Amino acid sequence: MTTAVGRVGADGMAATPARRVGRLHREGLAAYLFLSPALLFFCVFLILPFIFAIVLAFSDWGGFDLSTLKWAGFSNFGDVLSFDGTFVKPILVNTLLFAFGSVFLATFGSVLVAYCIDRLSFQGFWRVLYFLPVVATVVAIGNVWKMMYQPAGLINAVLNKLGVNSVGFLSDSSYALPSVTVVHAWASIGGAVLILTAGLKAIPEMYYEAAEVDGANSWHMFWSITLPLLRPALLFVLITQFIGGLQSFALIIVMTGDGGPVNATNVAAFEMYQRAFKFGAWGTASAMAMVLFVIILAITLLQLWIARRRGEETS
Questions:
Q1: 42: number of CA atoms within 13 Å, CB side?
Q2: Residue 70 gets which letter from DSSP?
Q3: 212-261 per-position pLDDT tens digit
Q4: φ/ψ bin of 263: left (φ > 0), alpha (ψ from -120 to 50), beta (otherwise)
Q5: Is the N-terminal amide bond of 261 cis, ω within 30° of 0?
Q6: What is the Cα–Cα distance from 195 to 211, expressed in whole angstroms?
Q7: What share of the chain is helix, strand, coil (3-state, %, to 5)?
């Protein structure tokens, strides 16, 4: 009797891991089943187009019949990276200036706005107010600012009242790119403000109370407490803002039409759009996309590396 009971207990203990593995297997299948719509969408609209773009970057194709697809090797990359062409200078230079300028303005402005909102009453109202440009369409934002930038627009009217001559914000090649950069930064502040205000709310108040007891002023608390503890949210904002700046071209189309004057506002994404859909040079456009992808990846990895190094130094 005792031997039979011991055998049943041993069999039950031996069967338990097998049942556990079977249950985990069924749970895994159920998880993949629920994820299958998202995975299918990801493969159809992201993975397959990315692979096709890589193929096109090494091919010569007019964009209509796949039977005309011809292998071109690295010739597209040679044309794109040639210093005699227009992609490296001024298009790539304009892209980097536009991205870095918008990132600096948007990040600085969002930190300032989020810090002020965190110390105001009716914080929900102010967050919604600053988030409204994110909800608005690029066409609406571009057209409103385009009217404000006109020689008879609001901004020049204010400058004339102050005794300053009218400025050709969108017609002068010296002012066109900075003018569009300011608009892009203004339109992207709202999303960054929401992220940074959430990061500010996560900072414990006891740090500020201890610093106040030690006699620290507002600037010392901001520089020594707020910014270090806000680093994860700030890093996310920097990366997303920079990627958005490098990929932006809709605002360029709305405000300048053709990247003018004299290619002053022509950026990489807009040039890719023109090469593919206007001139039918899909191979060259895909090569530009690959070059831009490598630049975005390199800068993102550099930002992550710098943030990790600073985190190790301060820890």
A1: 5
A2: E
A3: 888 888 888 888 888 888 888 898 999 889 988 888 888 999 998 888 78
A4: left
A5: yes
A6: 25
A7: 80, 0, 20
- 71 forms bridges with which residues in the sheet? 59
Copy the structure tokens of residue 21.
């593995």
Sole residue written with tokens 């009797």: 1
Of the chain, the end-to-end C-alpha distance in Å amounts to 64
Question: Which tokens is 229 given?
Answer: 């503890």
This prediction has a pTM of: 0.81
Task: Kindly report each contact of residues 303-312 with a partner whose C-beta sits within 8 Å and lies 24 or more positions away, as own/partner.
Answer: 303/235, 303/238, 303/239, 303/242, 304/235, 304/239, 307/231, 307/235, 310/231, 311/231
Please calculate the CA angle 235-238-242 and round it to the nearest 5 degrees: 145
**CA distances to 44, 160, 172, 184, 229 from 152, in Å:** 48, 10, 15, 22, 46
- Each residue's pLDDT tens digit, 36-45: 888 899 888 8
146 membership: H or E segment, kind and range:
helix 138-149
Helix then strand count (H, E) for the chain reads 15, 2
120: left (phi over 0), alpha (psi -120 to 50) or beta: beta
According to CATH, the topology of domain 83-314 is MetI-like fold (1.10.3720)
In the chain, where the domains are located: 2-57, 83-314
Give residue-wise pLDDT tens across range 164-215.
898 989 988 889 999 999 999 999 898 899 899 988 888 888 988 888 888 8
Q: Is the Cβ–Cβ distance between 296 and 64 less than 8 Å? A: no
b/e burial code for range 215-254 (CB count within 10 A of at least 16 → b): ebeeeebeeebbeebbeebbbebbbbbbbbbbbbbbbbbb
**Taking a C-beta distance cutoff of 8 angstroms, is the pair 187, 132 a contact?**
no
Contact between 254 and 142 (Cβ < 8 Å): yes
Both tokens of 273, joined, read 């759009």
